[in-house]
Amino acid sequence: MARGKPRLIKDLLADRGGLAGIAERAAATDRLSRRVQSALPGEVSNHILGANISGDSLVVIVDGAAWAARVRFESRAIRRVLSDTQEIDVARVIVRVRPPI
Q1: Is residue 70 part of a domain?
Q2: CA–CA separation, 13 vs 7, rounded Å?
Q3: C-alpha dihedral over 83, 89, 95, 96, to 10 degrees?
Q4: Is 18 helix (H, G, I), strand (E, B) or coil?
Q5: How many separate domains does the chain show?
Q6: Do the domain assignments include residue 49?
Q7: Is 65 contained in some domain?
Q8: What residue numbers bound the domain in which 59 lies?
Q9: How much of the chain is helix, strand and coil, in % rounded to 5?
Q10: Is residue 50 part of a domain?
Q11: What is the pTM of this model?
């Protein structure tokens, strides 16, 4: 493709490196977040905003510092569930707090 030449929307959507790839990664991240939520007690799972794999670590985003502590406490259970159900082995769980918007 020549630089600056417009592409058809259908080509952008079909291209794995383009919008289709982004949508696929977003769906995988959403599935991982839901799996992490399912590994946690209800009062904790409601505070999970997202999760992603970075190298050999699972990064979990929560909405408050108190919930970050609870997720860290449950990290062994999270790792076990991911290993058993999705065959994802992570060395550690990193918990980040997203500041309020």
Answers
A1: yes
A2: 10
A3: -120
A4: coil
A5: 1
A6: yes
A7: yes
A8: 9-97
A9: 50, 20, 30
A10: yes
A11: 0.78
